[in-house]
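ok so i was messing around last nite and threw this chain in just to see what happens. nothing serious, just curious
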Amino acid sequence: PGLARGGSGDVLTGLMGGFVATALRQGRDLVETVAAATWWHAEGGRQAAQARSQLGVDGTTLAEFINRAIAESVAD
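result:
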């Protein structure tokens, strides 16, 4: 339910576009790339809903939490 707000699809589209462009440039598998972008989108939504509320995950908040999740993953 947390991702059922305006802007969520826009965030997914932007994330997907960035991931696919990078994958094409680096010769990576597109199926895995699309799956990864989808997973990060869901993970950002999960973390945002947990920190805020399932009703409060707008596109800006979602993008912030996706960035945090990716940064934490890279730092590990």
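not much to say yet. The helical segments are 8-26, 30-51, 59-75.
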